[in-house]
Amino acid sequence: MTIAFGLTVRRLREQERSMEEAAHRIAEYILDQRKGGIECNEEGAMYHLFHEVNSLVTIADAHADSERQAKEFLRDTISDISHQLKTPIAALNIYNGILQQEAADTATVQEFTALSEQELDRIESLVQSLLKMARLDAGAITLEQSPENLSELLEHIRGQYSFRAEQEGKEIDLEGDEQAILLCDRTWLTEAIGNLVKNALDHTEQGDRILVRWQQSPCLTQITVEDTGSGIHPEDLYHIFKRFYRSRFSKDTQGIGLGLPLAKSIIEAHRGSIEVHSELGHGTTFIINFPIKMG
Question: Which terminal CB of the chain, N or C, has fewer other CB atoms within 10 Å?
Fold first, then answer.
């Protein structure tokens, strides 16, 4: 009887020590002094208790990592925005200074007023693109999808850029089934494909051609935007969909690096995918695939 009592007391003390050790480790975790779970060699109820605590620790660690990544993303985004805004704002300050000094010179005033307008357009474009991406990221946009005639939609996009293409001596051609229908949000898809056409215009020269082509199979709708322009350097191919990415090889000094990421976000919101193929000096092709819902 005495032996059994002694063993029971010993067992209870061991469990008490285990609980105290577990409480100490939990306190360390709460104070952010350690990571990871609690080792447990116990059985029965103690094992289940520690197992549940470890599950909570794992979940909390995952939330902490997610919050840290979100903060890092926000910090980097704010840094990128600040960097992007510095250039047009600095230019505006310079232009305004010149305008004040040359107020009597009508030609100079007109020249720098036009330049100021360009910089203001850049700022507006940056802000609008950031707002659109923020709404997409936050899931604050509900796509209003309806059956759209692809030929008519793409003809509308061509019309948006036809004046610029004509001025620059470039062609925008369309090729595909005039009866093809795609379930999509017309406004947002026009934005996405329009950004790809604009990107093609930005990287082509006089005499180059941009071809927008589409085709459908029983399970897939594919749209390609192909140009005969300068192509993308191999070093840039894996980065072009990153926000604010600017290639060290690019001659484009006006772009803000949001057109392609925004297009990708819109396409993915439609459950589509986008990829790019390019050969330096021989043009670029963007390929968009949308699955067709079956049944």
Answer: C
- Long-range (24+ apart) CB contacts under 8 A made by 8-11 are none
How far is the first Cα of the chain from the last one, in angstroms, to the nearest whole number?
75
- Can you tell me which residue has the tokens 């995952």? 62
- Give me the torsion for CA of 268, 272, 277, 278, rounded to 10°: -50
Cα gap 202→293, rounded to integer Å: 35
Q: What is the pLDDT of residues 93-137, one digit of tens each?
A: 777 777 777 766 777 777 777 777 777 777 776 777 677 777 777
Angstrom distance (rounded) from CA 70 to CA 61: 14
- What distance in Å separates the CA atoms of residue 257 and residue 115, rounded to the nearest whole number? 21
Tell me the angle at which helices 186-202 and 259-269 cross, rounded to the nearest 10 degrees. 150
Global confidence as pTM? 0.63
Q: How many whole angstroms separate alpha carbon 149 and alpha carbon 221? A: 12
How many CB atoms neighbour CB 120 within 10 A?
12
Cα(280)–Cα(230) distance, rounded to whole angstroms? 6
Alpha-carbon span 100 to 109, nearest angstrom? 9
Q: How far is residue 236's CA from residue 280's CA, in Å, rounded to a whole number? A: 11
